[in-house]
Each structure stands twice: as C-alpha cells, then as structure tokens.
Amino acid sequence: MMTIERFLQEIGPLTLGAEAPLRVRDYFQAAIPQGVDLPGRFTEPDGTQYARHLLARFSSGATAIVMVWGKGQGTPIHDHGMWCVEGVFRGKIEVVRYDLVGEADVQGGPVRLRAAETIHASVGEAGALIPPSDYHTIQNMLATPSVTVHIYGGEMDRAKIFIPEGGGRYRMEEQPLQYTTSAPLLG
C-alpha cells in the first residue's frame, strides 16, 4: 500500500503542462488499484451533502480534493471550467456526461444539454474531464459511502451548475463551493 504522501509527491510534477490531465489519469489507473492509504479524516462523509476535503495544493496551481459520497448523494449538472481527473478509491460512482446541443452562449444561458454517456466507475477507474466538454453529474451508486479523489487544474472554489427549466433547457448559475475540511497534507 502506498502512503498518501508518496502518492501526492508523485502526482505533483504530473500536473504541469497541456498533457497533465492524461498523465494524471494514467497515474491514477496504475496507482489506485495497488492501494493508497487515505487518512481517516479525509474519508468522513457529510450527512447532508457530499463532503469535499482539501488534500493538497501543488506548486503548479493544481489542487487535490477527496470527495466522500453518502448513499444517494450526487451533484447537479455542472462544469468546472478547468481540467479535472477523478479516480475512485472506494465504492462505485455513476458519471453522466452531457453535450451542449446547438449553438448557445453558456455564459448567458439558457442552454440545451443532452445526456451523452453514462459511466459506472469502480475502484481503480479514473477519467479526465477536459473543457470545453466537461458538463457532467456524479452520483454514489451504493448504500455505503464512496470515496473519490479529484485533481483540478486550479483552485476549485466555484462551479457552473445547470438548473432545469423544462423542455430540455437549463439555466446556468455560478455556485461557490466550500470545503468540508481545508487543512491539506501538502501545500
């Protein structure tokens, strides 16, 4: 089993440059199945919504966040506005990726979105979300908590969420995001 400190030290240099999301995704797929020791404080769920635990800030500006998903917890349709790699450390999640339909200004909305792909990801699986195609939802598929680690290309302190208005149309709102715990191991 790999220590979380070693895991973070090895990821840090991978977060630099245009190929960062693919390098980090490949590293996740190799490292996670071998086991990574996440400290208990980073695996605590939140009873009301998914938990966001800040794990690390890298010198590249990238961040690592552990998310803990309780039974039935998930996100609305959202996008990050930056690259992200997410890997499943425990449990199973469902990721639904959406496509923007037609010409629309996502800055002013409303927009039309259509579900394009559904992925059921288990321990060791990882995916990269790279703008402009990063509209998605995430949901825990189990009755027990699932744990994912996300590496973002910057500080993920807000997201664009898409609120249904009917007829396949969504209104975009920017939403600030908070950390459940914000005392990182690194950075």
What is the secondary structure topology, with strand pairs?
Layout: E1 2-3, H1 4-11, H2 20-31, E2 36-37, E3 51-57, E4 63-69, E5 77-79, E6 84-90, E7 92-100, E8 111-122, E9 126-129, E10 135-140, E11 146-152, E12 158-166, E13 169-176
CATH architecture label name? Sandwich
Q: Please list the strands of the largest sheet in the order they lie side by side.
A: 5-12-13-8-7-10
Name the helicity range: 10-25%
Class from helix and strand fractions: mainly beta
The CATH superfamily appears as: Jelly Rolls
Question: Spans with pLDDT under 50 lasting ≥5 residues?
Answer: none
Note the main sheet: 6 strands, antiparallel
Broad CATH class: Mainly Beta
User: What is the strand tally?
Assistant: 13
Helix and strand element order: EHHEEEEEEEEEEEE
Subunit organisation of the chains: single chain
Number of domains as seen in the coordinates: 1
Radius of gyration: 16 Å
Strand percentage, roughly? Answer: 35-45%
Shape: globular
What keyword list fits this structure?
about 190 residues; mainly beta; Jelly Rolls; six-stranded antiparallel β-sheet; five-stranded antiparallel β-sheet; 2 helices; 13 strands; globular
Could you explain the architecture of this structure?
There is one protein chain. This protein has 187 residues and is mainly β. The chain has one domain: Jelly Rolls (Sandwich), CATH 2.60.120. Helices cover 11% and strands 44% of the residues. It has helices spanning 4-11, 20-31, and strands at residues 2-3, 36-37, 51-57, 63-69, 77-79, 84-90, 92-100, 111-122, 126-129, 135-140, 146-152, 158-166, 169-176. It has a 6-stranded antiparallel sheet, with no helix packed on it. Strands 3-4-11-6-9 form a 5-stranded antiparallel sheet, with helices on one face. A hairpin with a 5-residue loop joins strand 3 and strand 4 (63-69).
